[in-house]
Automatic annotation (TrEMBL):
Protein name (database record): DNA topoisomerase IV
UniProt cross-references to InterPro entries, sorted A to Z: Phytase-like_dom (IPR027372)
Keywords: Signal
Segment forming the signal sequence: 1-19
Originating organism: Serpens gallinarum
């Protein structure tokens, strides 16, 4: 029995032997602190753990990484927003392309906390298709307005190229965000951490393909948390969601408590905005060394940020999921630094 538990421990916590030492990455300084316009408590999701956010049709939708069979439409209200559930049945996922050790780690996590598919992101196109990214399966589930859900046929070189770039090597540090353009011709995936990165796919007649390579960005490193957090230990750089708005790609970076606009050609950050000042106030702070921001949507007037607090209380004792509504920058999301 001791030998068996030792094997499980090594499986879950082993670090790749070749992993490069973490370096402090050079990050663009946030040019502006976003102003919080409102925060909305979400009722009606007993499991919590909301992860991912997108405007689909006529409202904001989200998904839980603990629930494999439903989406949630957010319904504004007072004193709290409510949810309308939409249920679906996902078919068995295709092979992930991951080695046995990482697959087994994902399975154990699913058994312990629930949510075998671990949906971590949501995006929608102009035709009403919803795209859900599964972290454990490295798959994208398409839910059409009518018809049955199906998994996208992703190119076999996608995972191979990502792993060759040092990504997708650790369980629970895989796909964390998804974005698709309105005409569903391009699709981006965010790899969470150690190394974090951005992958891009293009839809062609034969399906989704990598044009000149799948890896748009791969980077490692650590950075100091915002001073407002009160933390001093550097944390790995991460991505927790993606948003596509007016031909620009935006990343949600929960450890740094910031939103960054990134180049569609290189994935490099062009400009960043911080939400640490208001998001890390004493009343809103959670007892965690990283962040809980896991869903992002942008429009001309707002940045919407969904928090996955894992049912943990924040400073004022609130345990329910929270949706933050920040005012867009005065000069807009697309302005030069």
């Amino acid at each position: 029995m001791i030998r068996a538990w030792s094997a499980v421990f090594c499986l879950l916590f082993a670090v790749p032997l070749w992993a490069e030492p973490e370096q402090s990455a050079k990050q663009p300084e946030p040019l502006e602190q976003l102003r919080l316009r409102a925060e909305h408590v979400i009722d009606g999701v007993p499991e919590g753990n909301l992860s991912g956010l997108a405007w689909c049709g006529n409202g904001l939708w989200t998904v839980s990484d603990r629930v494999d069979d439903r989406l949630y439409r957010l319904v504004p209200g007072e004193p709290a927003w409510q949810v309308e559930e939409e249920r679906f049945v996902a078919p068995p996922p295709p092979p992930s392309g991951l080695p046995w050790g990482v697959r087994r780690g994902n399975q154990l996590i699913g058994l312990l906390r629930g949510g075998a598919l671990d949906f971590e992101g949501l995006s929608c196109d102009a035709r009403g298709n919803r795209y859900l990214v599964s972290e454990t399966q490295l798959g994208v589930l398409l839910i059409p307005p009518a018809g049955m859900p199906r998994w996208l046929s992703l190119p076999p070189g996608l995972v191979r190229q990502a792993r060759a770039s040092g990504m997708l090597l650790r369980y629970n540090a895989l796909y964390e965000g998804i974005a698709v353009d309105p005409v569903s011709s391009r699709l981006w995936l965010a790899v969470e951490r150690e190394r974090r990165g951005l992958l891009v796919l293009h839809r062609q007649q034969t399906g989704w393909q990598c044009n000149g390579g799948c890896v748009l960005l791969a980077e490692s490193g650590v950075a100091a948390p915002p001073v407002q957090s009160g933390l001093t230990q550097p944390q790995p750089l991460d991505f927790s969601d993606l948003a596509f708005y007016q031909e620009r790609l935006y990343t949600l970076e929960r450890m740094a408590h910031q939103i960054c606009r990134r180049s569609l050609k290189t994935g490099q950050a062009e400009r960043c905005w911080s939400f640490a000042e208001e998001g890390l106030s004493e009343a809103r702070r959670y007892d965690t060394p990283v962040g809980v921001a896991e869903g992002l949507w942008l429009d001309g007037e707002n940045a919407w940020v969904m928090l996955d607090n894992g049912r943990q209380p924040r400073g004022d004792g609130e345990r329910r999921p929270i949706l933050w509504q920040f005012a867009a920058p005065a000069d807009g999301w697309s302005a030069a630094p």
